[in-house]
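sry for the spam today, last one i promise. struct tokens for design, 383 residues
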């Protein structure tokens, strides 16, 4: 199975809307009703926040949606921006988290990618393929985004509902007797069939009789996508899978492989920077060897522009000084004409000042010499 080829070929068509906005809202409300009061369902991190966090995995319900790569993949606005930037890498290269869970209502209008992540598409070890920041350490339950200190390509898959057929009973009693030529048990084949939809798998280790399996992908990006796509999903029965990060690689050479993966990422980043440096140097050499450019004339013109800039600065300084000299001259002239200055600076207009001068020249009436003095001026209340 080669899901990446089918995913890439689907980019010739627009991405379909997996669900409607009303269905997405109903999923959120049902998740809130499922748990205690005060808890809120965080769709981005696929967990509840607030309230009582002591709910075990038994309280989980099967996911109402599931991504179908063959039907759901297609181009979105993110692909349009990538093509417009000539394939440049930007934040638009992140994959849509809702698409991975099968519940994106936007379709081709989505600002994130609706397809499987390509190998090394997100070179930054500090973020996952969905653009979420990793942490220094794993969560206690090995869930969440993951750790930036380790290239983890292995998923722990728990709560697998094993068949009660004779083949599974025999495999549980003696797994080696029920392996085929490739060493695969019935449960490992079922797990591989479902998880291979999300990328190329290197190794599957099924713990027959325990209902658990370890799935190791070739690339970490596919493991990140598969973890979100298969959480709370089912295989061939009505089980509710518990998908977490594996604490360690189940293969004997797991640590060596992780170290090799980290070395590959570092070498790729160094190669990308080196290619960018070589491109800049090539552009500089092409420009320097361009016969149409007279570098001596260019240097002379640049010196002339610098000289003109200095001359312009001196001219502005001279004009500024002349402006201050003119200002001080006007102030000195205004101080010699006090009446005009007072008239201009007064709050009263000319007509008001003239009226006040006339009142000053009019004779005043003599005051009453009554013995009552000022008290005689008051009339009765009726008046």
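last one done:
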């Amino acid at each position: 199975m080669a899901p990446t080829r089918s995913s890439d070929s689907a980019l010739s068509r627009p991405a379909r809307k997996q669900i409607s906005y009303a269905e997405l809202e109903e999923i959120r409300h049902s998740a809130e009703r499922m748990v205690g009061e005060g808890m809120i369902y965080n769709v981005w991190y696929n967990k509840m926040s607030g309230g009582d966090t002591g709910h075990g995995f038994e309280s989980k319900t099967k996911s109402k949606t599931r991504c179908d790569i063959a039907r759901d993949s297609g181009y979105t606005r993110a692909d349009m921006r990538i093509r417009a930037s000539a394939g440049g890498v930007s934040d638009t290269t992140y994959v849509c988290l809702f698409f991975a869970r099968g519940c994106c209502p936007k379709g081709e209008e989505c600002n994130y990618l609706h397809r499987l992540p390509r190998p090394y598409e997100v070179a930054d070890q500090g973020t996952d393929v969905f653009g979420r920041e990793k942490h220094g350490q794993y969560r206690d339950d090995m869930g969440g985004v993951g750790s930036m200190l380790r290239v983890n390509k292995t998923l722990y898959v728990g709560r697998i509902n094993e068949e009660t057929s004779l083949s599974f009973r025999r495999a549980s009693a003696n797994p080696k007797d029920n392996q085929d030529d490739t060493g695969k048990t019935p449960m490992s084949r079922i797990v591989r069939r479902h998880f291979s939809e999300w990328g190329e798998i290197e190794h599957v280790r099924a713990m027959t009789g325990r209902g658990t399996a370890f799935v190791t992908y070739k690339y970490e990006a596919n493991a990140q996508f598969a973890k979100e796509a298969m959480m709370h999903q089912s295989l061939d029965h009505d089980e509710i899978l518990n998908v977490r990060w594996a604490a360690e690689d189940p293969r004997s050479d797991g640590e060596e492989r992780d170290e090799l993966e980290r070395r590959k990422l570092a070498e790729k980043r160094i190669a990308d920077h080196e290619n960018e440096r070589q491109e800049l140097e090539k552009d500089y050499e092409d420009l320097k060897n361009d016969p149409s450019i007279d570098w001596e004339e260019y240097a002379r013109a640049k010196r002339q522009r610098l000289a003109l800039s200095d001359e312009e600065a001196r001219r502005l300084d001279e004009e500024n000084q002349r402006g201050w000299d003119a200002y001080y001259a006007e102030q000195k002239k205004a101080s010699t004409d006090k009446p005009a200055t007072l008239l201009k600076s007064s709050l009263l207009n000319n007509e008001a000042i003239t009226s006040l001068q006339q009142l000053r020249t009019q004779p005043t009436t003599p005051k009453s010499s009554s013995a009552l003095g000022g008290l005689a001026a008051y009339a009765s209340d009726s008046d």
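The CA atoms of residues 261 and 267 lie 10 Å apart. ok im logging off now
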